[in-house]
User: Fold this.
Amino acid sequence: MIAARIKSMMHAMQFLVKRRRPAAAILVMEAMMYGMCAAQPAAPVPAPPPRVTPASRVVQHKLSPLANQPVWRKLESFRKVLTAQEFEAAMRDFYADGSAFTPPWQLGPDSVSVNTGDPDMPTVRIDFRPPNEPPVKRERSWRLASELPPLAGRPPLSDAHIAIDPGHIGGAFAKMEERFLSFRQGESIQEGDLTLVTAQVLKARLEALGAVASLVRNTNEPVTSSRPPEFNNLALAILKDAGVAAPATGYDGLSGDAKVLTVQWQSEKLFYRVSEIRERAKKVNQQLKPDLVLCLHYNAEAWGDATQPQFSPVNHMHVMVNGCYAPLELEEEDVRFEMFSRLFSRLHEAELPLAESIGEAVARTTGLPPYVYTTRNARRTGASSYVYARNLLANRLYECPVVYLEPYVMNHEDTYRRLLLGHYVGRTLVNGKLQSSAIEDYVNGIVDGLVRHYQTKRPG
Assistant:
């Protein structure tokens, strides 16, 4: 089944790329990949260095769904922040996916000129810092651990402002999100509910250690005020742009790709995967302004028909930082702008040590092995086998360091039965043996990783 869906996805992608319609191509790709859940593990393939040609090319005016036009002039404030060598290292180690392509920017010895797609400002130039000059300091809302005041005997996370983003929505929206799992009538788990409980437990623990902890979502209701019907026209346009001349309106009675290629499914995805994340980003960037965002999720493997799901024999975890931008993604003006903003903000330098510390700690408390991507939408980065770079909307839009966590396989039988019990302290009999709460192990790992990081990096 997965092989057939990959083949279908590739046909759609090739059609759209030939027609130079990256927005529709990306949405169709995401839709089909989302329906497959996680790919099966295999041996990791290191990403090769990016092959970037010195010549750039003209790009057309293109934005990703629901995006605002970037204010390109803002990139000029990054002049003399990075050296050419630092820029090339960041591209090589984090932001490139290893593809050979002609990029929509021109790299010179002293600067990089980015093609904007905006006829009023076709390019924006960012000057590099000469190696013998100190970097230009920029104002920012977030702080590294090394920039916090000395502890002076206070709890280890004092002064740190940590925002916790419980992934998905849950509640009445769980089935729409395809994050509802039940193996027997009368019982179920919903990822949005699980992440909210996990976030609430984590918030209390972080506050006990001195941190200021904020929840990006504190109920099983959307942060966005929009609802799926508002996106019907956009969904219809996307499907027609993808070559679906007369898409079905609703998906009752449909499954698989037939369901994906309906106006209803696409409208719902625009609601909970685009509008919702963009609204959360506004809250993080404009209201909370934290030093770090922790995006909490629970992973899953393909479970087949939702009415007759299958247990997975594998269980695993990984954490992500932002990076690994595909050429097709960089066709979009807003994506290109956001990548350069993150790169020149040195967010990768802040995210990686946090992700490594938290990832290794969660691995210890959960006992889970690392997940291994076989697709090119993610790449290993850093020293930990648990850390990947991947370009997700949340870890791209949040204007501060983001650690995105994906522990456990919800449809692994042992994990499923532990999660049915929710959060508890101590051990109880689960699946024939005494076991701790999966949520408790998750939280303990995050707390341990954060404490180790802040104790190591902050002064005093």
Observations:
- Residues 263-288 form the longest helix (26 residues).
